Amino acid sequence: MVKSSVELYKTLGFSIVICFILISPSAFAITKERINHPPDAPKISFHKCETTGAYDIIIRSTDPDGDDVFYYIDWGDGTFMYWIGPYESGINVTIKHIWPPVTKLYEGQAMAKDIYGENSPWTHFFIFIIGARAIVNTRCLLLFGRF
Q1: Which of 16, 18, 24, 91 has the smallest set of CB atoms within 10 Å of its CB?
Q2: CB-CB contact of 44 with 57 (8 Å)
Q3: 16-33 burial code (b ≥16 CB/10 A, e <16)
Q4: In whole angstroms, how far apart are CA 23 and each of 1, 30, 32?
């Protein structure tokens, strides 16, 4: 008399093999380590709109890996733009800003960050507001002789 299905298979001449194969999903993942480089320090230029008094600030940074970039801008007047973007690497981005119309030298700074979190060096800029006029220098502070 057959007591179990296993004995039935044995009496019929079948072999039972139970096999468990455990495969980790990472066994099939092919990983390629990516080396990330920070973007270049932003390049900044200024253009004043005579009708509104606002300035068009054109900022651009190029990432050597071609990654999209974000921008952080400290305007030097107590206001900031926190990581705007992402923008395509190497393209000009135009941002509007209005400094208070008082005679004052403002020192601002900007930084780029790629989508993987690598920060560029700071770019420092100076803008000297004289009432409604401005003198801008992004490399160094000029001695102002004539306005």
Answers
A1: 18
A2: yes
A3: eeeeeeeeeeeeeeeeee
A4: 40, 15, 21
Contact 49, 91 (CB under 8 A): no
The CA-based diameter of the chain, rounded to the nearest angstrom, is 116
DSSP state of 10: H
Q: Tell me which residue of 135, 139, 126, 117 sits closest to 74, measured CA to CA.
A: 126
Question: Which residues does residue 27 pair with via DSSP β-bridges, in sequence order?
Answer: none
Q: Which domains does the chain have, with CATH numbers?
A: 43-137 (2.60.40.10)
pLDDT, one tens digit per residue, over 51-96 is 777 899 999 999 999 999 999 999 999 999 999 999 999 999 999 9
Q: In Å, how far from its chain's centre is CA 88?
A: 10
- Residue 33 one-letter amino acid: E
The predicted-structure confidence for 22-53, as pLDDT tens digits, reads as follows: 555 554 455 567 899 999 999 999 988 777 77
**Dist CA 139 CA 71 (whole Å):** 19
* Cα–Cα dist 113/82, whole Å: 11
